[in-house]
Structure formats: structure tokens, C-alpha cells
Write a structure and sequence with these properties.
Layout lengths: L16 H8 L4 E7 L4 E7 L14 E7 L1 E6 L6 E4 L3 E4 L5 E6 L4 E7 L20
Antiparallel strand pairs: 1-2, 2-8, 3-6, 3-8, 4-5, 4-7
Length: 133
């Protein structure tokens, strides 16, 4: 089931970043931009220096950095992954990752995840398998 109140819906097929910012207020702020039964796109607006939790998911997760700069510490990688506006980031299922907005100004990322699944702080025994028809 889709989460309630995503910004986009059947009667609103287009919105831009500035309109979303106006709707949700100053950072830190986030909202579901698009939500379907199987996938949610979350708009995440955070100040540089925001502390996020170290976590994993039982599914692959990916992001598009829309504004600013963000560092990802990804389990199994020796170096931090530094991303800036226009970069895609992918983290495989069951891989712990820690997200750090950096660069001295707010960042915005669009996170794409399975609807209804949150952060896991312990590694699950298996990952979710999604079959689309």
C-alpha cells in the first residue's frame, strides 16, 4: 500500500524542486514525492553536517543528488563516496551505509526505496524479492 499524501498524484503530474521546497519548509525536511504500491521516491533536504543513522535495507537502494554535496560511507568500500548535484548513488541490499551532507550548504537527494520498508540497524537474514508483473 502506498504511503499517504505523496506530493505527486493523478491530478499533479509535474512539480519542480523550488515548489517542493516551498511546500515542505526549510531543512531539515523530507516528503514522499511519488509513492506507489512497490516504490517510493523521497525528497530529503538536509543541512550540511546533519547526522544520519548507519543502516541497511533488505533491498537495493539508490539516490539522485539534486543539490549540494553528500558523502556516503558504504560498507566494503575503503574510501568514502563523494557525490554532488547530478550524481547517482547505488547501495546493494544488506549493505550498511551512512550518509553525511557536506560542503557547508544544504543538500537535497531523491531516495528511491521500497514502499513501507524503513531503516534496518541489524542485518536481516534475507533480502526482499520483488516481482513486477
Amino acid at each position: 500500500m502506498a504511503p499517504p499524501n505523496p506530493i505527486m498524484h493523478a491530478a499533479l503530474n509535474r512539480i519542480n524542486i523550488d515548489e517542493i521546497k516551498e511546500r515542505i519548509g526549510p531543512p531539515p525536511a523530507s516528503c514522499a514525492v511519488v509513492a506507489a504500491d512497490h516504490v517510493t521516491a523521497a525528497f530529503i533536504w538536509q543541512e550540511s553536517g546533519t547526522i544520519n543513522d548507519n543502516h541497511c535495507h533488505d533491498y537495493d537502494e539508490w539516490w539522485l543528488v539534486l543539490e549540494g554535496e553528500i558523502d556516503w560511507v558504504i560498507e566494503g568500500r575503503e574510501e568514502t563516496v563523494h557525490a554532488k548535484a547530478g550524481d547517482f548513488i547505488f547501495v546493494p541490499a544488506l549493505t550498511f551505509h551512512h550518509i553525511f551532507p557536506v560542503g557547508g550548504k544544504p543538500s537535497i537527494r531523491l531516495g528511491v526505496a521500497l514502499t513501507g520498508h524503513g531503516h534496518l540497524h541489524e542485518r536481516p537474514e534475507r533480502q526482499v524479492k520483488v516481482t513486477l508483473e
